[in-house]
Amino acid sequence: MRPTVHDIAAAAGVSLATVDRVLNQRPGVRHVTREKVETAIRELGYIRDLAAANLAKGRTYPLVFILPASDNSFMHGLNAEIRQAILRSPAERTDIRTIEVPAFDPAALVSVLDELSRGKPCGIAMVATDAPEVRAIVDRLVRDGFPIVTLVSDLTGSLRHHYAGVDNIAAGRTAARLLGRFLGPRKGDVAVLAGSMVVRDHRERLEGFTSVMAEEFPDLAILPVLEGRDDPEVAHRLVADSLKNAGIVGVYSLGAGTRGLIRALKEKAVDRTLTVIAHELTVHTRAALIDHTIDAILNQDAGHEVRSAIRVLKAKADGLAVIEAQERIRLDIFLKDNLP
């Protein structure tokens, strides 16, 4: 059996009230008595159940999610998962709010983080924009005691506590292998649509993609990256212009703006001469899989990412360890045949 506060009190020869004061670091305990209690804690191997203690005290965890404001179906889905978490707040003892910042705007993100540093959130989850000024303020907040989790797009090299998202280099490599295998012996050009190269997830997907294409499929040439800013209209224009190149045999969409991509593909590729790999299962990409406009979707579970961020932020606020296996975000591959 696990030792209890009653065992500590008996071993130290003190009252339960004294044990409680020591555990909660409250004054009113003589130095010699405090040492007896701490010795008993060490010798018994007592581990405090902080979750139960916080429940008994009625503690609530104020958490903030920072998301990019954009017409992005995946981000809409992420927002919906956060709203579901808000509905669970009474049971999970959380107080969650969201803040939207302009997409791909490091200065706006820094401004929001600076404002939050003056408040008392016990945890911040953010879709990171990878820039030195963002890394600097994240490091300052962590040093000041704020638990920070990056969500979907990481901020490597910073002091952030955890990343809740897929391995994006592996995702890009997977996309390349799927595209290359689907195309078989065909030769030609591959168009790549990104949101922006200022976010790490897009850069890492491109890194993984180009690496496998160069190693395994040298007859397929990657064209200069199209940056659609996750805007369906911009994506439509860029892809439509690119598809005027008759040598294109494949398309990899590694960001959002997928509605614009799908519209351009339908306008140009009604004969299905293109092989297309994209990210994130949404109502639009699901329909495009079913009607053969897209061949495969790489997906990350937004609900798992939100739940993981909440678990990690609460654990960090309580000084508890994170169970890494529980927080690993899986990369799913969906074809028309295995849609959930």
TrEMBL record:
Q: Which UniProt keywords apply?
A: DNA-binding, Transcription, Transcription regulation
Q: Ranges for the HTH lacI-type domain?
A: 3-57
- Entries under CDD domains matching the protein: HTH_LacI, PBP1_sugar_binding
Tell me the InterPro entries matching this sequence: HTH_LacI, Lambda_DNA-bd_dom_sf, Peripla_BP_I, SBP_2_dom
Question: GO MF terms on file?
Answer: DNA-binding transcription factor activity; transcription cis-regulatory region binding
Annotated Pfam families? LacI, Peripla_BP_4
Question: Quick check: keyword DNA-binding in the entry?
Answer: yes
Q: Known PANTHER family for this protein?
A: LACI-RELATED TRANSCRIPTIONAL REPRESSOR, TRANSCRIPTIONAL REGULATORY PROTEIN
* UniProt-recorded name of the protein: Transcriptional regulator, LacI family
Q: Which organism is it from?
A: Rhizobium aethiopicum
